[in-house]
Amino acid sequence: MQPLDERQIQVGVLGATGTVGQRFIVLLAEHPFFVIRALGASARSAGKTYAKAVNWKQTSPIPTIVRDTIVNECTPDQFAECSVIFSGLDADAAGDIEKAFRDADHAVFSNAKNYRRDPLVPLIVPLANPGHLNMVHQQRSLHSPPLQKGFIVTNANCSTTAYVVPLAALEKSFGPIESCIVTTMQAISGGGYPGVPSLDIMDNIIPYISGEEEKIEWETLKILGGITEADDGTKTFDMHAKNPLRISASCNRVPVIDGHTECVSVRFKRRPPPSPQQVREAMAAYTPDIQAVGCPSAPRHAIFVHEEVDRPQPRLDRYYQNGAGVSVGRVRQCAVLDVKFVVLANNVSIGAATSSILNAELAVMKGYVNY
Ligand SMILES: NC(=O)C1=CN([C@@H]2O[C@H](COP(=O)(O)OP(=O)(O)OC[C@H]3O[C@@H](n4cnc5c(N)ncnc54)[C@H](OP(=O)(O)O)[C@@H]3O)[C@@H](O)[C@H]2O)C=CC1
Ligand SMILES: N[C@@H](CC(=O)OP(=O)(O)O)C(=O)O
């Protein structure tokens, strides 16, 4: 394990052996102030060294700082020294485990779907709605008993994350958006390891991903909606209720390993709508607040806008800004709605682990993490 200095914050990774967990390990091993202190996975892995427990699928070797770390079961007593907990847990296990860690006063940054709809839990895509982080005060104070340090923050479904970044840029410059149609082409790694059987996905497209369309349609409203504050100071997520946004999502699994590509059409409330060129310029200039705060994992540019007619492509563009930015291309007029474009995001980076790390960096910088 690395030596600690006063600037460093000890973190634990739950689901450390999984697809998202491995990406956490790669990113955290190089992090300027988070230091991996403890790893957790299922009873199948507990008691083994990380190198023995994991089926490592990354292109770089297992970082030496975790190779010989013994994997624990996911119980808070094994993570007492960790102020921050990153969760890449399977959703079947995440509900009870993440709650136990929050109740034990840990700051939990989760990728799982379990708490995304909780009215006190921020659902944060760091390149879109970092301001929702301030809901954690209310989450702590309404907890019984009130919590000093603990909270849960979730990131979104990886397909939601990809297209909500350009949507946030368009809302900011030309909003409100009135309606949106999105068709996804999702990578196999989105389903975790081993994922869809090779005989199903090779030479094929599967036009169904269980629960995915509903998640995209619902999560977008929470992310792009603001927070309403009542006279007594009580806050609620407004679910885009002031300007109802209609969304239709169609989801497909395609034979790509990493990188979700999505075709998006948008209609604005304002008439006349912005031109494709205005949309291109607004996306390229979009600067989310996390860049101003100086989060070390923030991409220099949130959205790269391609001029080439055949971009973005997963093989060429999924590592843009180390997987932390999104790539947009083919911005053009839509004959049915107003404007259409293609967006690509790395589902295991900004779609998962990178978003959690950015959310945690923001929480540290804003003073929400006590360590
Ligand atoms: N892959 C992606 O692109 C995205 C994934 N997500 C979400 O992130 C989470 C992780 O996904 P992914 O990495 O793909 O999944 P994987 O199936 O690859 O990994 C799941 C992890 O959870 C652990 N686990 C399973 N059951 C238990 C249990 N009962 N107790 C403790 N640990 C357990 C596994 O440990 P062990 O190895 O010991 O079995 C493994 O570390 C999921 O909730 C997923 O929905 C979100 C956005 C994108
Ligand atoms: N279902 C997504 C990944 C995922 O796990 O999503 P969620 O965390 O919303 O269940 C995909 O297959 O690409």
UniProtKB/TrEMBL annotation:
Family according to the record: Belongs to the aspartate-semialdehyde dehydrogenase family.
Reactions catalysed according to its record: L-aspartate 4-semialdehyde + phosphate + NADP(+) = 4-phospho-L-aspartate + NADPH + H(+)
Enzyme Commission number(s) of this protein: 1.2.1.11
Protein name in the entry: Aspartate-semialdehyde dehydrogenase
Keyword field: Amino-acid biosynthesis, Methionine biosynthesis, NADP, Oxidoreductase, Threonine biosynthesis
GO MF terms, alphabetically ordered: aspartate-semialdehyde dehydrogenase activity; NAD binding; NADP binding; protein dimerization activity
Pfam families: Semialdhyde_dh, Semialdhyde_dhC
Highest taxon of the lineage: Eukaryota
Pathway terms, separated by semicolons: Amino-acid biosynthesis; L-threonine biosynthesis; L-threonine from L-aspartate: step 2/5; Amino-acid biosynthesis; L-methionine biosynthesis via de novo pathway; L-homoserine from L-aspartate: step 2/3
UniProt function note: Catalyzes the NADPH-dependent formation of L-aspartate 4-semialdehyde (L-ASA) by the reductive dephosphorylation of 4-phospho-L-aspartate. Mediates the second step in the biosynthesis of amino acids that derive from aspartate (the aspartate family of amino acids), including methioinine and threonine, the latter of which is a precursor to isoleucine.
Matching InterPro entries: ASADH-related (IPR051823), Asp-semialdehyde_DH_CS (IPR000319), Asp_semi-ald_DH_pep-lack (IPR005676), NAD(P)-bd_dom_sf (IPR036291), Semialdehyde_DH_NAD-bd (IPR000534), Semialdhyde_DH_dimer_dom (IPR012280)
Residue span(s) of domain Semialdehyde dehydrogenase NAD-binding: 10-136
Positions of the catalytic residues: C158 (acyl-thioester intermediate), H260 (proton acceptor)
Phylogenetic lineage: Eukaryota, Fungi, Dikarya, Basidiomycota, Agaricomycotina
NCBIfam families reported in the protein's UniProt record: asd_EA, PRK08664.1
GO biological process per UniProt: lysine biosynthetic process via diaminopimelate; methionine biosynthetic process; threonine biosynthetic process
Taxonomic source organism: Piloderma croceum (strain F 1598)
